Amino acid sequence: MAKDPVCGMIVSEKTGLYTEFGDKKFYFCSPTCQKTFTEPEKELSRMKKRMYVAASGALVLAIIRGALYLGVAAGAIAVTWVPFPEIPFLSYGLLLFIIVTPVQFIGGWTFYVGGYHAIKQKSANMDLLISIGTLTAYLYSTVVLFFPDAIPGEEKFVYFEVSAVIIAFVLLGKYMEEAIKKKSSAAVRKLLDLTPAMARVIRDGSETEIPSNQVNIEDIMIIKPGEKIPTDGIIIRGESSIDEKMITGESLPVGKKSGDQVIGATVNKQGLLQVKATKVGNETALSQIIHVVEQAQSSTAKVQRMADSISAKFVPSVVSAAVVTFLVWYFVMGDFVAGLLAFVAVMIIACPCALGVATPAALMVGVGKGAESGILIRGAEYLERSQKITTIVFDKTGTLTKGEPEVTDIVSLNKLDEKQILEYGGTVEAGSEHPIAKAIVKKASDMKILLGRPEEFESLNGLGVMARVHGKKIYAGNRKMMKKFGIDAMHIEEKMEKLENEAKTAIIVSVDEKIEGILAVADSLKETSQMAITALKELGIESIMITGDNEKTAKAIAEKVGIEKIIANVLPADKAEEIKKLQGQGKIVAMVGDGINDAPALAQSNIGIAIGSGSDIAKETGGIILIKDDIMDVPRAIRLSKATMKKIKQNLFWAFAYNSAGIPIAAIGLLNPIFAAAAMALSSISVIANSSLLRRYKITSGEESLHLRMANKKEKSKPLEIMR
Fold first, then answer.
1. What is the pLDDT of residue 77?
2. Is the pLDDT of residue 426 over 80?
């Protein structure tokens, strides 16, 4: 069985209508739902016309009814419904028949088509209930009008208004529901419209414009200032700042130069760029994001699956209950008309549309809200699991830290100043490919220091490097290297230990066998790591850091960010086992990692949270994907998940409460069918409107006060617990 993504009804995959999008099939209970899904703008326009027909009819009926009441109020004993002497046969009932018939079969046509398909599929849906209810009132009134002797009893009234107003109310409700849905899903549709229609490429040596969907891999694209980048690629010429807000949620433009990756649909703000296309079609970052969002919006939470199973059995039960209601009223109470009205009211009030849309409505808004801010939630199951998270395990490198070593300290020990120390260290390290060497060379470049060419370069594995620079013998390495070449380093031990206690790697720089300075290199913390850990504490969630580093380094990093438990000396392949151990202690564990190296641990955890840039979104794993490289998105994602799940539970509660209370009231004759239609429409609208309130949710809510608390109050830290 599958679920209609529009109305939420359960349909058979064997007999249901379906539409294919990419590699996925979506099944529908009726052609109306199918058109609403595939052609939302056109179907909304058609629905609007049908709604106008029904509403106009209902308005005319209200005017006639109002005129009747005014006549009675003015003292009229009877009202003669013969406006023209030439047409004396135009009775009140016939006038209603003429007004209501277009409403019945133009306004209500889609209900009958949907009901027919439901019978054809041997299932039941909302359209079938409305069709049975309104046709019962219409056909009964028609028989009373033209064949009055066929109806038992003395009182024979027509109920054309009931049928027309029900159709008008339901159509108005569905139109409002779809209009709210349209606004609520705007964030996702914006993603679909981001890619520019045309692209400027170089082919056969000349510049030409083509549709952006015809760009091929290796094509050279020309992007002028202010234009959108047609597809993912790499800059081969030019320099600019790129506005990536629509993909990553990052408010400030990002500087890009030759060799840097760019994401399709982002905006070139300044310079002229030549970009070589590296990904097209479904492989682009934007396509992958849209795919994830679509999958999430069509997913089903456990609590909703329970509601769906009830809905599948609910409609047949309602038809049975309506029939029993009529039989009791007719045979036990002896009132045919009251039984008929109660039958119609039960059929209308029991439509389970609110149950069907309870989860999709909230998911559409919540997932869209996250997508706007660079947070992709893969499905409802992860929303549910987020409610129970007790522990979050953070990988260190690339997650809490930047993953790129950089020079943090330049310590001068003798006559040479910091620039001279960095010049000697950078020149000798320029011959090495080690990440630490690259960090030192980069620092020299950032400080505009011109590096010479090293002579007699030699790299000593595990020790450091040495070379001649300007005729002087330069050594750059650790204590063991100094000891190997007889250079005394005991007098700098205190400074070395201080740097190492701060989780920094200390590189000693010696010139002609005399120590001149120390270059400290560290994988720096991300700016928001400490704030993220504090935010998680306030959510009542325990944070643990897992790393392959030794305990000393791990302890230094953990203390900086406020993490109280660490798991050190762990190989990447063993991280999943450590997650399993935590789960064995009864913890509900989320793992935060880069989504590639930490894939086994992400898969083992209850919720994997993958951090990565939008350009490699296709490679990411985990239930929640954070496109930006911002660790604060972890607590933001959890808060958003909880807010969305809260809306889902609210929707389901009110939908169940509405159906549970409405059916018995209708069955005992206390609910007029017209009011039943209004209540049914209102229930669906209320669910959609309640979900749309998520659009007001501020994803950074509370962070300003958190900044102030962190600035004004230093928390007392607990003793660090080393778990391994």
1. 47
2. yes
Q: How large is the average pLDDT for residues 243-268?
A: 78
State the Cα–Cα distance between residues 193 and 293, nearest whole angstrom.
15
pLDDT at 291 over 90: no
Instruction: Please count the CA atoms within 13 angstroms of the CA of 334 that sit on its side-chain side.
Output: 2
Instruction: Assess contact for 269 and 243: CB atoms under 8 A.
Output: yes
Q: Would you give the distance in Å from CA 339 to the centre of its chain?
A: 48
- SS3 state of residue 343: helix
Tokens representing residue 183 in the block: 């606004």
Residues known to be catalytic: 395
- Beta strand extents in 232-347 (DSSP E only): 233-237, 240-243, 254-256, 261-262, 267-268, 273-277
* 356: amino acid identity, one letter: G
| Phi, psi for residue 153 in degrees, rounded to 5 | 95, 165
Only one residue has tokens 């109470």, namely 333
Nearest alpha carbon to residue 170 among 349, 402, 28, 42: 349
pTM score above 0.85: no
Residue 713: C-alpha distances to residues 706, 709, 716, 717 (Å): 10, 6, 9, 12
CA distances in angstroms from 366 to 96, 326, 369, 645, 648, listed in the order given = 46, 43, 5, 9, 10
Residues found in the chain: 724
**Amino acid (one-letter) located at 6:** V
Q: What average pLDDT does range 626-654 have in this prediction? A: 86
- How does pLDDT run across 15-66, given as a tens digit for each residue? 567 777 544 677 787 777 777 777 767 777 888 888 888 888 878 877 876 7
Task: Write the CB contacts of 159 (distance below 8 Å, at least 6 apart in sequence).
Answer: 137, 140, 141, 340, 341, 673
